[in-house]
């Protein structure tokens, strides 16, 4: 594997975070079924992509150097 990406672009990381949250929720008495878990992963991935786009656009406007 030679390609790299940001941690927030990894479905494995988001899946792990949702699984962690699901485990913690279960510990406190809230049950999350498999389909809800899948939907949460998809929603978080989409949100991460949208946030990444906003940060990229803001970063370009806030940049101090010009593009060639």
Automatic annotation (TrEMBL):
Organism per entry: Aureimonas pseudogalii
Alphabetized UniProt keyword annotations: Membrane, Transmembrane, Transmembrane helix
TM spans (from-to): 12-30, 42-61
Protein name: Holin
């Amino acid at each position: 594997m030679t390609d790299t990406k940001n941690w927030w672009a990894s479905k494995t990381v988001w899946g792990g975070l949702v699984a962690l949250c699901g485990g913690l929720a279960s510990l406190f008495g809230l049950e999350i079924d498999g389909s809800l878990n899948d939907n949460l992963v998809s929603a978080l991935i989409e949100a991460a992509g949208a946030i990444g786009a906003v940060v990229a656009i803001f970063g370009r406007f806030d940049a101090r150097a010009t593009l060639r």
